[in-house]
UniProtKB/TrEMBL annotation:
One family name in Pfam for this protein: ArsA_ATPase
Lineage: Bacteria, Bacillati, Actinomycetota, Actinomycetes, Streptosporangiales
Protein source organism: Nonomuraea muscovyensis
ArsA/GET3 Anion-transporting ATPase-like domain: residues covered: 13-170
Protein name (database record): Anion-transporting ArsA/GET3 family ATPase
GO molecular function: ATP binding; ATP hydrolysis activity
Length: 333
């Protein structure tokens, strides 16, 4: 196993959250690949029942079991688990009450839905409990089974409630197995072994939701990690040209002459093409200026930031490995 410099030395549970549409699951998958590189073993967990991991890795729907899904760069294995609340509850009942057979009968009666409707926090305890058990688990040799666990968690607006399990079940159980189970989960989630990472775009709404989420997380005593800025588009123009375009001083006549000199357009066509290009430049410059402002807003969080490129061909397996390499080179794994 290769040694590495990382911003998250000692962190074994990486929770990934983000506003819908920011590419949260994609970043979680790429982070798992990055963490596994060099001969490590990483578990990637999803808890929302969307089978997003299977889709990204171009696999059939995942069962409720841990299975190897990818080989990381320079060796290393990524395993995946799609947590099913019903199966997690059966495991819980067997672990604490020895009731697995009875539990299966109870699920047919809808007892799982009943229990998690009456106490919504209990469902979160079940799925986070399965994840934190993987973090704590040791093999027969006494070593940790997984070097790291990556949790593709619920969106930013729900992440604090999802992780703050002790508070969520406080009204459900003051003592007993449920309280003990939630305390075990909380012990991992609130420890230095955990970091909650936020995925955002350089747009006003996801940036503001990220900042709000980080503030809520800190208020609850939960550990914020880094901010992954996804789908970043590099500017193809020098800053002077962008500044000029924003001020409305972009020289269309000069662009027309340039098109003619390059043999890309002739006569009136050159002027028409130049005007269309100038509009694109102005729009690009304005978007770049907005993105610069959103970057400055994210600095308020005082957390490490990582920028992942927009993939022109979309996120396929090759693109996923490209994102993983970007994460590695920026020191996030």
């Amino acid at each position: 196993m290769e040694s590495r410099d990382t911003d998250w030395d000692g962190v074994r549970l990486h929770v990934v959250t983000g506003k819908g549409g920011t590419g949260k699951t994609t970043v979680a998958a790429a982070l798992a690949l990055a963490l596994a590189s060099g001969g490590r073993k990483v578990l990637l967990v999803e808890v929302e029942g969307r089978q997003g991991i299977a889709q990204i890795f171009d696999l059939p729907p995942l069962p409720y079991e841990e299975r190897k899904i990818a080989v990381a760069p320079s060796g290393g294995d990524v395993y995946a688990l799609a947590v099913d609340p019903e199966e997690a509850m059966l495991e819980y009942m067997e672990m604490f009450y020895g009731m697995r057979r009875a539990g299966r009968a109870l699920t047919k009666m809808g007892i799982v839905d009943f229990a998690t409707t009456v106490a919504p926090g209990f469902r979160d305890v079940l799925v986070t409990g399965k994840t934190t058990e993987a973090v704590r688990r040791r093999g027969k040799n006494g070593r940790r089974v997984y070097d790291a666990v990556v949790l593709d968690a619920p969106p930013t607006g729900r992440i604090t409630r999802f992780l703050n399990v002790t508070q969520e079940v406080a009204g459900l159980a003051k003592v007993g197995p449920i309280k003990h189970h939630s305390d075990l989960v909380s012990g991992v989630v609130k420890s230095p072994e955990t970091a909650v990472h936020f995925v955002t775009l350089l747009e006003e709404m996801p940036v503001q939701e990220t900042l709000d989420g980080i503030e809520e997380l800190r208020a609850a005593g939960l550990p914020p990690g880094g901010v992954f800025i996804n789908m970043v588009r590099e500017s193809q123009l020098p800053q002077a040209a962008l500044d000029s375009a924003v001020r409305g001083g972009f020289d269309v006549a000069e662009l027309t002459l340039g098109l003619k000199a390059a043999g890309l357009a002739d006569g009136t066509d050159a002027a028409t093409v130049a005007e269309a290009l100038a509009e694109e430049v102005v729009e690009h410059a304005r978007r770049t200026e907005i993105e610069h402002g959103e970057r400055e807003s994210l600095e308020q969080a005082s957390l490490p930031r990582y920028e992942l490129p927009l993939l022109a061909d979309g996120v396929d397996l090759a693109g996923l490995y490209e994102l993983a390499e970007s994460i590695r080179t920026q020191g996030a794994s």
